[in-house]
């Protein structure tokens, strides 16, 4: 993507990581992806009482090319899934996803054939936000947790090492079919 | 006994009774229920007549399979002309009788409300902690016909809770409504009247004698029929709630009785199994093994395919393991033995049968993972394999006489026992050829035809005229157990007897898959549907169905039983395919181990680690019954199909795994249940000439003291593992001898056989002299491994020894 | 007074707003507490002596419209007692990615074991972390409570607990509790 990806690991890279993280988290631009009732709360978050502008995020972009955060707000129907994926694919890297509300996170109470049982079946999700719908404070809580995550994001060689590590964890993790209890 | 109407309750009461082949014409009477005039058979109970109209009268004690007792009084109805309300469950209708239920009679409604309030006086109403909550007739009927509030303000009766009426069954006495369903079941159905109503009035409670727990093989049924939460099982207590369970109708995999079961699971784990209502087979009952022994399904499973490398097994991928199995078997093609477990489904057994004959080009196949003889194989091939139903449960019930040969039904086929007991209560004469008059024979009011172990053939050939006359009556049945294989000439003698008397003959194996494996041709010399391998037409039929040339099928009958194992041990067979076989089950476990050890290449299809997987070169994990669909064939020959419980299971059935191996070997097999059923259905049973019946001269019993033995229902069987409460209800491991021998032996006896000795407590029983009965495979006594003995083996007895 | 043009009047509104009180809530620096009846994260309550109120009856799971609750009961034994009476909830899980905070479980609970707190900051980065186990849901031990497993207050039965006459842990319980004993030992 940029010069920072080519830097060798070391003091220089970690400094750049911190700076890049600070810059990225301070100017997240969400793509509008309101699908249901959660979207009302997401809009409320943009209003004066909660004022998402305090985090530099007031520009909800209708064009995915100019957004780097997708807040999936609402239940994703099977028909919406490919659309959602296309929007995600059109967003430039680096990009993040918040699954807002239980329907986006796991299907919620709509455990049926029409609803995607968690948007993580379609796109990688960084933060899951419970609630039905979550109030704007809860959304901000999720956004702030995402900010922390972005701040700690690694770059270049460090990132590649991290990806290898995550891949290893994912490969050894039990499949859903092997899980018992509520994970099943 | 009062007539109960088991006919499916259709909308038209006139149809009831018609359709069943009743010999006497049914007298119909006219009655009026809630203003509706209807005609019902004479002797019908008011509650059944109301049911036929779709009127639900509340009830607790009423059960269609138990005698009416009118203990709970919940079903009070108004009968025209009677001064007080009458219990509908005991009110026999007479012609012209007019009855009114709670829907049309205020008297009945008030009476029912009063009884419900009365029943709830001492009920603790602890529904949140009660296992029955959510499926409780008391809960439901208190809601539907009870008063909204109780006027009772006093202190409720309290008991210490719960008490164990057996290790498995727990009793909370304060919940009991004294309906006597459990005690009536124990007395009338199971014949184990070890629980009884004690005390009187408000103190009335269910209880056992102080030193005698309710160790019945059928105790679990009382838990199922208890209309309140008074009886619960230790294994299910507090485990789950009915609303959270998914129920799937299944068939029992434990024995050849073929019970219909309901399997309840919750989030990937089986939580309980219940008897399912199947009037033709198990009625509404099953045995405790079928009900409680399912913990093995989840425990100690083989999770992934394994390959032996440098002497030890390592985990491999499926393609790698299939490839290894295919290469090893292709090298040994034509010189492979196939051992099929006795609990395979028909579809799996068929897959083994076809795999052996096509991919492996061999006929060395045997499903009998137990003592088996050539005579028995000939008997099964000629008489049983692919044959139509010769005797069914209904025939047992209507038979004038039933002769049991080498069969102890309570231990070896419990539902057969329940039916025989039901029949015996109605007058059927049960006769048993054997060395011991067991408790179950007593419960069936049966008579023992004495025969020392090994001497059954002589006993059968020298039956007295009275017995022959009994068996000569139309409808008489001879039931033959799997232990007939251990008695020389007995199978021939039974065939002879059946021919002479005209009695129907049925083979009652112990394991659920044996009849199916036989029908599927998983026995050397036998192709599917009972086709003789040596018959040209049969070979052509099968070859056409399998899409091969008839010439490519093996034409010489292969090795079976001990011959097969010996061939493998001596290196005459170079490879073995073993599916679901426990080596310790063979009459000579040492020979079986040596056979698997000495074979160059062994493929094991197993779901649990076993002695075979320890020695196998390739281990392929397969599905257990909850993870696949399939069919068991019960002893009648009745298919018992069952569906997959866990539809998202990752494991594959034996048939599917074999299909993959076959494909890797360049052959092909149908892989899924539907196509196997289709293929078997198209092939159908054989109608041509069958293999000749055996004609073996009767053997003689050995001199000295000989062993009589069979496997008890609850024993060291691997499928009962993981359920300690069930194991605790098993009968104790003892040696049973006659009174005179017991007097000579004292408290304990040391039994020495060819391979070793065991020491057991002595119990006096109705056993022939110079015979000692011990269990075949119970904790502390495994006669094959510990003694090197089979039934009929002479042993040395010596008094004493450390028990 | 002549009418001002519309556009200018609009600026007037903007100008006047500058003198109004700011309505923006400064989350997260200043958190405005939600109303008392707000439906937040669940809590499994305890009796006054620290025993759990939950009896593992699964009525909450029954009531749940989203199938978000999983409970498995077990027997209290003389050695290990977690709740008064016979039965306790051995496994208690709530999947917060299914829970819709409707509160039907609270209404279903026969022992008032399950209530809802006002805590709402639940977002997390994996599905597994959002399945809360019993240990995450249990209410903290207040002063006077002893961590189970331990016996009931001597001389009481479960009825005394349900009638709410048990007001705190007895000295015997404090000394016999294994958790406390461990603390003393260390």
Strand order of the largest sheet of chain A: 1-2-3-4
Major beta sheet of chain C, specifics? Answer: 3 strands, antiparallel
Q: Give, in order, the helices and strands of chain A.
A: HEHEHEHEHH
For the termini of chain C, the CA-CA separation is 86 Å
- Largest sheet, strands/sense/barrel of chain A: 4 strands, parallel
Q: How many β-strands of chain A, per DSSP?
A: 4
Question: Helical element count of chain C?
Answer: 7
Secondary-structure element pattern of chain C, one letter each: HEHEEHEEHHHH
Please bin the fraction of helical residues of chain A: 40-55%
Overall pLDDT score of chain A: 86
Distance between the termini of chain A: 38 Å
**Residue runs with pLDDT of under 50 for 5 or more positions of chain C:** none
Taken as a percent bin, the fraction of beta residues of chain A is 5-15%
Q: What would you say the CATH architecture of the domain at 39-160 in chain C is? A: 2-Layer Sandwich
Overall number of strands of chain C? 5
Describe this structure in words.
The complex is a heterotrimer of chains A (184), B (803) and C (186). With 184 residues, chain A is of the alpha/beta class. Chain A contains six helices and four strands. Chain A has helices spanning 11-26, 37-46, 80-90, 101-106, 136-151, 156-172; strands spanning 30-31, 69-73, 96-100, 127-129. In chain A, helix 1 (11-26) packs antiparallel against helix 5 and helix 2 packs across helix 5 (136-151). The radius of gyration of chain A is 17 Å and the shape is globular. With 803 residues, chain B is an alpha/beta fold. Among the domains of chain B are: 28-121, Ubiquitin-like (UB roll) (Roll); 300-367 and 515-683, 3-Layer(aba) Sandwich (Rossmann fold); 380-512, 3-Layer(aba) Sandwich (Dimethylsulfoxide Reductase, domain 2), CATH 3.40.228; 706-799, Beta Barrel (Barwin-like endoglucanases), CATH 2.40.40. Chain B has 26 helices and 37 strands. In chain B, strand 6 (163-164) and strand 7 form a beta hairpin. The longest helix of chain B has 16 residues, at 106-121. With 186 residues, chain C is of the alpha+beta class. Chain C has helices spanning 6-17, 59-63, 104-108, 134-137, 158-162, 171-176, 178-185, and strands spanning 42-44, 69-75, 87-95, 114-116, 131-132. Chain C has a domain at 39-160: Alpha-Beta Plaits, CATH 3.30.70. Chain C starts with 5 loop residues before the first helix and ends with a helix. The longest helix of chain C has 12 residues, at 6-17. Classes of the chains: A alpha/beta (184), B alpha/beta (803), C alpha+beta (186). Chains in contact: A-B, A-C, B-C. The A-B interface holds A 175, 177-178, 180-182, 184 and B 267-269, 648-650.
């Amino acid at each position: 993507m940029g010069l920072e990806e080519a830097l060798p690991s070391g003091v220089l890279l970690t400094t750049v990581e911190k700076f890049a993280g600070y810059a990225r988290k301070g100017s997240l631009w969400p793509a509008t992806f309101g699908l249901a009732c959660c979207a009302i709360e997401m809009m409320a978050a943009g209003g004066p009482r909660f004022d998402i502008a305090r985090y530099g995020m007031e520009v909800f972009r209708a064009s995915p090319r100019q957004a780097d955060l997708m807040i999936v707000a609402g239940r994703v129907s099977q028909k919406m899934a490919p659309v959602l994926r296309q929007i995600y694919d059109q967003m430039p890297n680096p990009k993040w996803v918040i699954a807002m509300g239980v329907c986006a996170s796991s299907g919620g109470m709509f455990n049926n054939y029409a609803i995607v049982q968690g948007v993580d079946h379609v796109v990688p999700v960084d933060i899951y936000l419970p609630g039905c719908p979550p109030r704007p404070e809860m959304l901000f809580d999720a956004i702030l947790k995402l900010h922390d995550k972005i701040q700690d994001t690694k770059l270049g060689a460090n990132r590649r090492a991290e990806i290898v590590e995550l891949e290893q964890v994912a490969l050894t993790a039990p499949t859903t079919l092997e899980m018992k209890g509520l994970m099943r | 006994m009062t007539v109960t109407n088991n006919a499916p309750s259709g909308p038209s009461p006139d149809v009831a009774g018609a359709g069943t082949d009743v010999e006497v014409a049914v007298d119909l009477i006219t009655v009026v229920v809630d203003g509706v005039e209807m005609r019902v058979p004479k002797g019908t109970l008011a509650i059944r007549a109301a049911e036929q109209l779709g009127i639900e009268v509340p009830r607790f004690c009423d059960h269609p399979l138990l005698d009416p007792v009118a203990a709970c009084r919940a079903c009070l109805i108004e009968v025209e002309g009677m001064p007080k309300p009458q219990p509908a469950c005991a009110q026999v209708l007479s012609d012209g009788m007019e009855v009114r239920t709670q829907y049309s009679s205020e008297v009945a409604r008030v009476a029912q409300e009063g009884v419900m309030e009365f029943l709830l006086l001492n009920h603790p109403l602890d529904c949140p902690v009660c296992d029955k909550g959510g499926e409780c007739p008391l809960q439901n009927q208190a809601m539907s016909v009870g008063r909204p509030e109780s006027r009772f303000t006093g202190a409720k009766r309290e008991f210490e809770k719960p008490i164990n009426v057996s290790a498995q069954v727990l009793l909370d006495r304060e919940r009991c409504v004294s309906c006597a369903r459990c005690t009536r079941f124990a007395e009338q159905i199971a014949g184990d009247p070890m629980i009884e109503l004690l005390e009187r009035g408000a103190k009335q409670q269910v209880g056992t004698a102080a030193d005698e727990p309710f160790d019945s093989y059928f105790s679990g049924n009382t838990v199922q029929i208890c209309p309140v939460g008074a009886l619960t099982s230790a294994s299910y207590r507090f485990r789950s709630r009915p609303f959270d369970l998914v129920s799937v109708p299944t068939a029992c995999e434990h024995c050849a009785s073929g019970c219909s079961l309901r399997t309840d699971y919750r989030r990937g784990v089986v939580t309980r199994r219940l008897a399912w209502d199947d009037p033709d087979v198990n009625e509404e009952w099953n045995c405790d093994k079928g009900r409680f022994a399912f913990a093995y399904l989840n425990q100690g499973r083989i999770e992934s395919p394994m390959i032996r490398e440098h002497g030890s097994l390592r985990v491999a991928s499926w393609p790698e393991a299939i490839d290894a199995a295919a290469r090893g078997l292709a090298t040994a093609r034509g010189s492979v033995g196939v051992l099929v477990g006795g609990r395979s489904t028909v579809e799996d057994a068929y897959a083994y049968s076809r795999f052996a004959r096509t991919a492996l080009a061999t006929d060395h196949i045997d499903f009998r993972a137990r003592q088996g003889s050539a005579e028995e194989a000939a008997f099964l091939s000629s008489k049983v394999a692919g044959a139509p139903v010769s005797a069914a449960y209904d025939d047992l019930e209507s038979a004038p006489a039933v002769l049991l040969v080498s069969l102890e039904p309570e231990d070896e086929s419990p539902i057969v026992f329940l039916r025989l007991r039901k029949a015996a209560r109605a007058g059927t004469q049960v006769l048993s050829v054997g060395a011991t008059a067991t408790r179950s024979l007593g419960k069936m009011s049966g008579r023992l035809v004495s025969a020392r172990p090994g001497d059954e053939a002589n006993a059968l050939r020298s039956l007295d005229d009275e017995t022959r006359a009994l068996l000569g009556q139309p409808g008489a049945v001879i039931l033959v157990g799997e232990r007939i294989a251990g008695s020389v000439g007995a199978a021939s003698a039974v065939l002879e007897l059946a021919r002479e008397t005209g009695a129907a003959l049925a083979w009652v194996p112990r394991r659920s898959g044996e009849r199916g494996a036989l029908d599927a041709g998983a026995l050397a010399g036998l192709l599917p549907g009972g086709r003789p391998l040596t018959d040209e037409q049969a070979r052509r039929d099968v070859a056409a169905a399998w899409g091969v040339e008839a010439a490519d099928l093996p034409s010489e009958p292969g090795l079976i039983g001990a011959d097969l194992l010996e061939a493998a041990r001596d290196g005459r067979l170079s490879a073995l395919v073993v599916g679901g076989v426990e080596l310790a089950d063979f009459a000579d476990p040492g020979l079986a181990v040596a056979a698997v050890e000495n074979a160059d290449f062994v493929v094991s299809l197993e779901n649990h680690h076993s002695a075979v997987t320890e020695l196998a070169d390739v281990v392929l994990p397969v599905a257990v019954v909850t993870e696949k669909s399939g069919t068991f064939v019960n002893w009648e020959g009745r298919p018992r199909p069952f569906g997959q419980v866990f539809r998202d299971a990752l494991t594959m059935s034996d048939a599917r795994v074999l299909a993959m191996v076959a494909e890797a070997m360049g052959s092909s097999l149908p892989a899924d249940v539907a196509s196997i059923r289709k293929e078997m259905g198209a092939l159908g049973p054989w109608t041509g000439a069958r293999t000749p019946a055996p004609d073996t001269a009767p053997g003689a019993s050995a001199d000295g003291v000989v062993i009589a033995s069979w496997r008890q229902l609850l024993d060291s069987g691997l499928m009962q593992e993981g359920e300690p409460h069930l194991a605790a209800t098993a009968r104790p491991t003892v040696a049973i001898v006659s009174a005179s021998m017991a007097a000579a032996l004292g408290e304990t006896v040391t039994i020495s056989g060819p391979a070793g000795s065991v020491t057991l407590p002595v119990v006096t029983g109705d056993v022939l002299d110079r015979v000692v009965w011990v269990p075949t495979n119970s904790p502390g006594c495994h006669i094959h491994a510990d003694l090197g003995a089979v039934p009929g083996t002479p042993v040395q007895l010596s008094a004493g020894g450390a028990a | 007074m002549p009418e001002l043009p519309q556009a200018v009047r609009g600026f007037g509104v903007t100008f006047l707003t500058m003198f109004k009180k700011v309505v923006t809530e400064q989350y997260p620096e200043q958190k405005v507490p939600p109303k008392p009846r707000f439906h937040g994260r669940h809590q499994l309550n305890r009796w006054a002596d620290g025993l759990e109120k939950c009896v593992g009856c699964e009525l909450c799971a029954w009531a749940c419209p989203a199938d978000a609750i999983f409970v498995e009961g077990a027997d209290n034994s003389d050695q290990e007692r977690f709740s008064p009476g016979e039965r306790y909830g051995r496994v208690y899980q709530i999947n917060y990615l299914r829970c819709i905070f409707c509160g039907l479980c609270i209404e279903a609970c026969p022992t008032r074991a399950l209530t809802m707190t006002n805590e709402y900051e639940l977002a997390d980065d994996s599905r597994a972390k959002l399945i809360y186990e019993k240990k995450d849901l249990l209410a903290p031990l207040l002063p006077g409570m002893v961590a189970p497993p331990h016996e009931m207050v001597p001389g009481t039965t479960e009825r005394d607990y349900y009638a709410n006459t048990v007001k705190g842990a007895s000295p015997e319980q404090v000394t016999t509790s294994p958790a406390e004993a461990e603390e003393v030992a260390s």
